[in-house]
What does this fold into?
Amino acid sequence: MEQINLVWLGDANESLPLAVTADRLKANVSSLAQRDAGIFRDAAAWIVGLGATAAMLAVVAGILPQASATERFIVLGIGLVELGLVLGILGWKWRANRSGVRDEWSESRFAAQVLKSARAGQPVLDPLDSTFIRRRPEWRRFVITVALMHRSIRQPNHDTASFRKTYVKERISKQINYFNAKGKRARRWSIQGGRVALVALGLAPFLVMAAFANRWWELGWESSWVGTLTMALLPVVLPLVAAVIMSLNHILEHDRRTQRYPDMVARLSELRDAAPVDHCEHRVRAWVARTEDLLADETMEWYFATRVVDLW
It folds into this structure.
């Protein structure tokens, strides 16, 4: 199968019913996609977090006094911790690159979406005219294979009326619930993170100007620990905090989901309400095709969004 090394389905000599094979394939590919997503997102969060911590430690080391041997030893210890953090960043980056986790994640999730579409849309849709083939022709053999598999499973008991009800319940309603829950969660994180970043960026210019004035006119505000914190540390830390929040919002798709998912909920709700009331298979096929086109558009938007995210 193109673009993805699918996990083992079972003993080559084991004879399994087609439905069991389809279920096992879907479960294994979905499990692979979830595993790779966890590795990639963990690596992204650790790289950003360790980098920010290392930068803040560098600032702290720069403002600490080094008059006595004890003070120099403390600064040396901070420097060693900073070195450890940098090595941790390199380790996470090496792990992600060595495993090719981003590419494997994007391809395995794409395969999982193909399987879900085939499972939901057959036997109504034409296996040779899949929306995924038009978007990624190199996946043609895989798409046709899984479509024919599910068509063989569902064709003998096909009934248009029951198919329409099942499709609304198992495909459209579940997708609405998914996009609604994920969209609300992303919006909550995006708004809260945006507020923190806005406050940090709003305070930073005033602290930078205060630090400049303190140094220019030799006001001596840094003589106390509060002054040292305000004049030396916060002007660097606050913009760094804002940059970390914005980076994580981008990597974890909070901003994209906040904008995209409510629209998906609205459009899927319209399609659910527009379900054909008669048993005309042509109308049902056109309705299912519109729904799968919409879901495939979201899959491709997500796919291309992951291709521009790098951990370095």
